[in-house]
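Q: Could you write out the predicted structure for this multi-component system? I'm mainly interested in how the pieces pack against one another.
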Amino acid sequence: MGTHNINFSEQFEFTGKVKTLSIVGIALGIAAIAYGFIAGDKVMHERTFANLLLMGYYFACVCMSGMFFLAVQFVAQAGWSASILRVPQAMAKTLPIAAVILVVIISAGLYTHNLYHHWNADGLTDPNSPNYDALIAGKSVFLNVPFFLGRQVLFLGVYSFFAIMFVKLSYNEDLAGGLNSYRKSFKNACIFLVIYGFTTPIFAFDTIMSLEAHWFSTMFGWYNFAAMWVSSLATIAIIIILLRRAGYMQWVNNSHLHNLGQFIFGFSIFWTYVWFAQFLLIYYANMPEETVYFYRRFEYYKFWFFLNLAMNFLAPVLLLMDRDNKRTDVRLLFVSIVVLLGHWVDYYQMIMPGAVEDGHNGFGIIEIGTALGFVGLFTFTVLTSLSKKPLIAKNHPLLQESLHHQL
Amino acid sequence: MSNIKYILGSFGDPDEMMHGIEKLQENNITIHDVYTPMPIHGIEAKLGVKRSRIDIAAFCFGITGTCAAFALIYFCAVIDWKVNIGGKPSFALPDFIPIMFELTVLFCAFGMVLTYYASTHLFPGRSPRVMDLRATDDRFVIAVDAQENVSHTVIDGLLKDAGALEVKYNERKYISYE
């Protein structure tokens, strides 16, 4: 396709079936959560909270990694992605909303003792109490409610700050042109990546690993980072493919899809690498305080344990290895959806055994409903922000390279 | 029949060379190959070069490596000399995986290098076969098989029209044979 017939002010219109469906999704989600809180007993409450945490975390992580994608493109001075940057930008713009939702879920869970009850319950740090737990008391310098919440707010706040700044710089570039915005974005992307690299493991330790506060793994941070990054890449691919099918973004060609496919393929393997590194060390050393994590998953969540590997490793490796599969939008779309669902399973078996102690393998209305609700919310918020501005950053200095991208 | 084997059009500019390819193709003259000092976008599609099958070769080498590693460890650790490591069964698959992975990478890498050498006739100690030495420096060279395409004057004219700085008639396929 020639570049002369590109409409540089093409804008996405968020109306019709997609909008209705996303609102229906949100409504279903609210209904499922309400059902979990009203109808259920203590286990149901814990399960609902665990599901809220799962989807809140997933939502925030996908948006955060959309931001990370932007920063990586700027630091690498990547040209191929210049014409698709508005999609991750829309995700980054949604990050503040996702951050607020996650912080609300976490604080509600903390103060009702439904989440994080391993380290946040009465008497755990009091030597005179019957509940006293020496391990938790030793960790309480780091794992205490004010510091914990403070870290959450600080990390999500800093990410959101950078997210909004990048989006603003790009909009300014649309109006003013020139290289100023690009240079500023480059500089801030460097700063952001350093901060992000050091803080995401801590963010994952806090939000997910502290659900089972006795257990620890230094691989856990990178394991989570890989999960959030690859699921975000899959989301970007899905949004772009669906937009292209709806008649938008016709400048996106097979080579762009190929690049996204390579990213998904590569980082799925990276995810497996980190997952396996964590698993192998624990398996090999066979120390009780570490094996307890996999014991619980293998004993009560065996199906999910293997489903996780099948969806996040076997599916992308076997289906995306071929060049043609990365370049064909139906196949890439299929694998992206599998990977996205796969990382739900991944988070599910990270969170559930620690957060819901008495009921195992809970899967039903609450899980499906909450997931649908957050998918609806994500679609609604991201597409709303996507529809506000043109779908192409017309003054991006590397735009021509992206429009002529060919592999 | 003359002794001329190949006609080489030597261009100083890649765009002119691309234009030359088009001209020759319009006149149904088959191009033997094109030699350039740097990669040129879209030239494979223009020349109709078939997709490289090195990825299939890589996959086969990789799978060979995986199987070789598995066979080796299985023989050592399960059949020949069982060692009790932390009370684990001797056939402990997770322990095998890092070595299987490493040998997959090793076989794949070595296999691909050898495949590349074999397909390009490049071996250590062997002087490379080049049709025109300046194609490795600053010239973009189109090679036409002179035996198949008999109208040499037409080819000469087309190449010069397209902007060839020089047209050579080689009686040997490779000038730098030894």
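A: Regarding packing and overall arrangement: Residues 47 and 335 of chain A are 29 Å apart (CA to CA).
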